[in-house]
Write a structure and sequence with these properties.
The complex is a heterodimer of chains A (489) and B (199). Chain A has 489 residues and is mainly α. Chain A is built from 17 helices and 11 strands. In chain A, helix 5 packs across helix 6 and helix 15 runs antiparallel to helix 16. The longest helix of chain A is centred in the C-terminal third of the chain and has 45 residues. Chain A is elongated. The relative contact order of chain A is 0.09. Chain B has 2 domains: 116 residues, Ubiquitin Conjugating Enzyme, CATH 3.10.110.10; 71 residues, no CATH class. In chain B, strands 1-2-3-4 form a 4-stranded antiparallel sheet. The N and C termini of chain B lie far apart (47 Å). Classes of the chains: A mainly alpha (489), B alpha+beta (199). Chains A and B meet through helix 9 of A and helix 1 of B. The complex binds zinc ion (6 copies). One zinc ion binds next to loops of chain A.
Amino acid sequence: MSQTDMKRQLSDPASDATDSEDMEEDDEYANYYYDNTDDLDIDKPKKTDDPEYFEYTILQTEDAERLLNEEVERLCSELKMSPSLAKMLLHVGQWQGEDIIERYQQDQRKLLTESNVSCPKEMKEDSLVGSSPGCPVCAECYPRDKFMGLTCGHLFCPHCWDMHFRFQIEQGITMGIECMGQKCKILVPEDFLYSVLKDSKLRDRFSKLCFMDLIKGHPKLRFCPGPNCSVIIHAKEPRAKKVECSVCKSTFCFRCGIEYHAPTDCDVIKKWLTKCADDSETANYISAHTKDCPSCHVCIEKSAGCNHMQCSKCKFDFCWMCLGDWKSHGSEYYECSRYKENPNIANESVLVQAREALKKYLFYFERWENHAKSLQLEEQTLQKITSRINVKVMENEGTWIDWQYLQNAAALLKKCRYTLQYTYPYAYYMDKGGRKQLFEYQQAQLEAEVENLSWKVERAEITHRGDLENQMDIAEKRRQTLLKDFLEV
Amino acid sequence: MANIAEQRIRREFKEVVKSDEVAACNIRVELVNDTYTHLRGEIMGPPDTPYEGGRFQLEIKIPETYPFNPPLVKFLTKIWHPNISSVTGAICLDILKDQWAAAMTLRTVLLSLQALLAAAEPDDPQDAVVAQQYKEHYEIFRRTALHWTSTFANGPKKDKDYDDKVTSLINMGFEEHKARVALSTNQWDLTRAAEYCLS
Ligand SMILES: [Zn+2]
Ligand SMILES: [Zn+2]
Ligand SMILES: [Zn+2]
Ligand SMILES: [Zn+2]
Ligand SMILES: [Zn+2]
Ligand SMILES: [Zn+2]
């Protein structure tokens, strides 16, 4: 193959389908020259009909502050109120500006009362007696006009307010600071706080903590959970979609902030991870690295990601998960990922039911865990590929660009196996029925093609390039099909 | 001790001692030493409850940040109640945690505790065993609480049946309190209580 032919075939399968803007295309092009670790084209879906497509931007602290301020100002000018009050209303009302405006215009008093920002007149209390009353908190007497308070009428001396703010801020409370009155839920707006609190260090700390509180309460903003990363993700819609931080490179689910988990949704993955943590002892024995060959019984260690194993001694092809003949795993009849429930379970004893429940859980856990391990092993494969390419390039056997497809294949494999891993918690919690059958069918299809791809990537240098690229295409299509049908969007 | 805390406690002390309302409800506070950081409270079990007539002693510790943070309160007198630990006396009550407000006083706390004795909240339990009994075997719960009140809080009403059961476990060689806990935990079933003591 001539150099030009090679270059022509270089475009990876994912970018063939892109209808991205020119700017992005320039970026992709640039990537070919320096990016030798991650193929960004594979990881960032761009087509709007892609089930994983997600629009978001990465904000620095100042950008996020500006964004919040704009929303506050919009509400201020619309409802003619102080920024401090507007901020409070937005925070309490989850930043649903339109909704707040509507409710305010319908019944201003009701909204303010329900949001705990002001107190209806008839509920006002004045607890002070005499011209020089004692502060209800510190018992010190002051002239009446020294006392301060919010709309609820609970009055306290400035010194006590100051102490109150100090202790609340120390406990990390900012937007949720309440009046000191008994059973009083009225929230302290920041202008009142700043009018009392003079300590500049504390004012600073308040403003920082407050900002964090506001971001955490904003449905379209999220701090990057990456270690020591301070950027903020701004999403167009608050969805459970994948975000990759361009600064620290960590990937996570926008909605819940933990590792991306499609097709499983946020609540289910949380339930699953808790279950795995609770049952970790029960499941421990599974963590075997060696198994015996089902044909000749020689001990075999799993050192690569692929679950299609071949015994080095007798050459028997078998499945690492179920130890069955690999032939039975040919894509049409792939049964290995499907758990066969006892159809008569409802009539069995409690003990049998408990045993069955454990069996079912272990079945799914084992596959979940195994894919996680395969991902680690395939990470090592990728490193090996990279260093082998390095050698080839040094020996003038082609350039980095010529071998890019191997990197792409490894990256795509990772992405497909990752999704495959997260299909198991989804299937575990699914109800029996037609939808589960369809899911299991597509899961089995993906399972088969991922193992085929893994098998070929491990033998990349002897696999025909066209064959490998074809396999990449099939695997990614299976993944997309499954996500299109089952990823809640 | 911070100045505000001491000043407040001094004033509250007078408030509790003087108040007529307080005398009627039978609540009391006294100093344990003269530093105002450590107090002893007492509440009378409310009428028409299994705690009626009992006197319950409370340990009250005043943090330096009082009244901006709540006092630390626990029961010294053993009590059988869903929101109070039968082992440590620890209390689950919102105003002693995040619902505290600086304007609240020891009087508020004592009256709230008395109200808690009159109206348990078994869905927010401190003692899971008691809470479960409260929900599933209310009559046994009521008699058990009464038995504990007469045993530990000088309550006037005795339950001869329960007293006899404790005695029979003691006669089997078990220590008195262990026997009482075993019976209370096992719905006063002698056989199961004996097994519980042995396990
Ligand atoms: Zn004061
Ligand atoms: Zn108030
Ligand atoms: Zn980051
Ligand atoms: Zn999520
Ligand atoms: Zn073999
Ligand atoms: Zn298998």
